[in-house]
Amino acid sequence: MKSLLLFGATGDLARRMLMPSLYGLDSDGLLPDDLRIVGTARSLLSEDAFKAMIETALGEFVEKDRQRPEWIAKFIARLRYVPLDVSDPTQYQALHDALSREDGGHGPADGLRIFLSTAPSLFGPTIAGLKSAGLCGDQTRLALEKPLGHDLASSAAINDAVAAVFPESRTFRIDHYLGKETVQNLLALRFGNALFEPLWNAQGINHIQITVAETVGLEGRLGFYDDAGAIRDMVQNHMLQLLALTAMEPPARFDATSVRDEKVKVLRSLRPIDGASAATHSVIGQYGAGAVAGQPVKAYDEELGRASTTETFVALKAHVDNWRWQGVPFYLRTGKRLPTRSTEIFIQFKAVPHSIFAGAGAALQPNKLIIRLQPDEGITLRVMLKEPGLDRAGMRLRETPLDISMPNAFADSRRRIAYERLLLDLLDGEPTLFVRRDEVEAQWSWIDAIRAGWKANGMTPKSYPAGTWGPSAAIALTERDGVTWHD
Description:
Layout: E1 2-7, H1 12-27, E2 35-41, H2 47-61, H3 69-76, E3 79-83, H4 92-100, E4 112-116, H5 123-132, E5 141-144, H6 152-163, E6 171-173, H7 181-191, E7 205-213, H8 222-247, H9 256-269, H10 278-281, E8 282-288, E9 290-292, E10 295-297, H11 300-304, E11 313-319, E12 329-335, E13 342-349, E14 368-374, E15 378-386, E16 397-405, H12 406-409, H13 418-428, H14 437-456, E17 462-465, H15 472-479
Parallel strand pairs: 1-2, 1-4, 2-3, 4-5, 5-6, 7-12, 8-17
Antiparallel strand pairs: 7-13, 8-11, 9-10, 11-12, 13-14, 14-15, 15-16
Helix pairs in contact: 1-2, 1-3, 1-13, 5-6, 6-14, 8-9, 8-14, 9-14
């Protein structure tokens, strides 16, 4: 019998994402029949209480048309629960014993898959506890949910602790953005079509913008977020992965080694933003009181309950120093309490070298490609087309979108939670959409240099009203180059 062991099984991530994802896979017949899902957390719940909690979560977070009683009953029957304080090494034997009860005579580590989501300080003790209880067999796979440290040194310590027990081939570092359909469509768009790749370089592209905008504030993450800030919460992982996929060279084939080799080349080619350039290539902000979606919201300090210098907004001007991207700026922007929730990659191509069209209304706009990841997944290509008319005063052109809405284009396919794909890949041992250690360390090296540059320049967050697009300095960051953020 196979087991999927979920740490933090009573937490928000498990209730909102992991359990609904596993339910979705189960209801589609994609989970092995003999797979049991064993939840563990500090909460002293009975197994029946845990199952009731998960059934309630499914009712809240699964689409109503997929909540069939027989599917729910089948899924709930897979669940087990074992209370565990991960910091107490004496409790892991009880976890071993619980996993052994239905193992059919095989060791509990045979076929064991572990999803570990915990505070960075607890990764080491948890790995040690699992090893001491005999739960780290030769076939065991370990998935690690972020945050994996708060800088390069702490990340390396966690990875060293993991590597002492689990080889890289059985270590699956999760960045859930990589499980999103539109992120994978970026690869399909680039490498499955002859149209874009000849222009996907410094000769064809003027600049690239990557935006991850949130309307929410702290949302119960007070301690974690104030320690991390926007750059470590969003830029270090999600945004740098999006940048790497956008900028990487074509891999030889679509497999884990080829794709991840090309991503790490990009990350190592990022020009450092250090003490000499931090003041001109980065902007940090912190939201004050304001209004979002017409509702008044408190300032960050008020939500936190004390004064803080943590940034809730960051904008960066980055460069990838290689032949393909020399001279092309990558503008990154993320923040909380912004006007809208959106994640997108915006690519502006270079203008035509000479316009043959004369007359009013014939001003040409450069082509733009917009890849939307959330909330509405889709791809838009903005091109110049002729306006209808007789054109007696010259041909009039208008920028027009060619829009592909993913839900409409693939109306016959169910939209899946990103974790569905990642959990299934963990069970199957497919590592392509997971992050390799050298990627993580390249990301942290770049981020650490930026934070050191902020310190060297005495930079503190500039205030911006909640419901706006960050400090005015973020606008100046692009306007100096004649570029406007795509809102």
